[in-house]
Amino acid sequence: MENLNSVIRRIETIDYNMMKKAQARLDSLTKPQGSLGRLEELAKRIVGITWNLNPSLGNKVIVTMAGDHGVVEEGVSAYPQEVTAQMVYNFVRGGAGINVFARHIGAHVVIVDMGVAEDLRIKSEGLKIKKINYGTRNFTKGPAMTRDEAVRSIEAGIEVVEEIGKVDILGIGDMGIGNTTPSSAIIASFSGLNVRALTGRGTGIDDKIFRRKVEVIEKALSVNQPNPRDPIDVLAKVGGFEIGGLAGCVIGAAVLKIPIILDGFISTAGALIATELAPVTKEYIIASHSSKEVGHKIMLKRMGLSPLFDLELRLGEGTGAALGISLAEVSIKILMEMATFTGAGVSERKK
Asked: The whole model's pTM is what?
């Protein structure tokens, strides 16, 4: 495929003139102007992203990237590493939370092995193998991956979007035991903020494991010294293969003018890598929800994104993205199906 920088150069800014036309249509609908609040803003954004005043969101796909993390050996998670592969099997069989959410909104789920620590013994149309390595290295002892692996993980994410082909809207999610630890390390690297202030409890760890998690992240930053002005360096030193893949999905979607809906903390870590590499990708990203992970809010603020809702979700997998896609879909139905004052014979507001 193309060199990563060449792909990034293909990303265009969204169509703001088309957004003005969408605003005019929204203002002509049988409702007080602006009365549907952020749903109107959402519809207008999708028009701008797609360069289409009459967009369709019928073809909905959620990509769930999976990968393991060497830092799990430091005791930072409440679950053992083998759960990552076990959950991938659950995804493929249709029994996980994301499968339920996807069926509810009529979306197709694509699972991607970016770096699961074992070879998956299952074949399915919904499973893609893009394995960069069998999990990252323990980043308390050195970089999580090589720079080449970091670039390859991003390129693999771009490939996934290209291979999926025609899609109207793309949600992204994750699976990887221990991956809130590298996600916290990523935002700590870029922000320079105190690690404890942006580290959360992940899958529900107790106070002892939480203290250990903070110590591990602080050690990783000290050992590796990731360069905040070099997003590839940050990804390589303290990131994860699935996080790199998620960054690639954001870049790939932006190239193809596809609205991309984030899930929570880990998918936003991937988006953060993408936006640090290519700031224009921010225009294509819609944040579905605000996670209970404190670092997630800091990431969203850095990218200038405001989440659509806050249900205290922290499952991951793409579940929040599925709900975000549902809101995106209804916003476009408002734009396309709601009657105008003129068409319905309803008197407009007095001027």
From this structure: 0.96
